[in-house]
C-alpha cells in the first residue's frame, strides 16, 4: 500500500468518525466512490483558487 493510500484511509476515517479498521470493512465500490469524491473536490478547490495544473 502506498503512503498516499494509507494517508487517505486515515483522512477518510477521521471525516466519517470511524476507525481505519472499520473503513477497511467498507466495500471496494464504496471506498472507490469516496476516493473519486474527494479527488474531484480537491480539483474543484484548486481550480477555484486559480491553480489549473
Automatic annotation (TrEMBL):
Spell out the protein name for this chain: Uncharacterized protein
Amino acid at each position: 500500500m502506498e503512503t498516499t493510500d494509507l494517508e487517505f484511509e486515515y483522512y477518510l476515517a477521521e471525516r466519517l468518525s470511524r476507525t481505519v479498521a472499520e473503513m477497511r470493512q467498507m466495500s471496494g465500490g464504496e471506498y472507490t466512490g469516496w476516493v473519486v469524491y474527494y479527488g474531484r473536490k480537491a480539483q474543484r478547490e484548486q481550480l477555484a483558487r486559480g491553480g489549473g495544473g
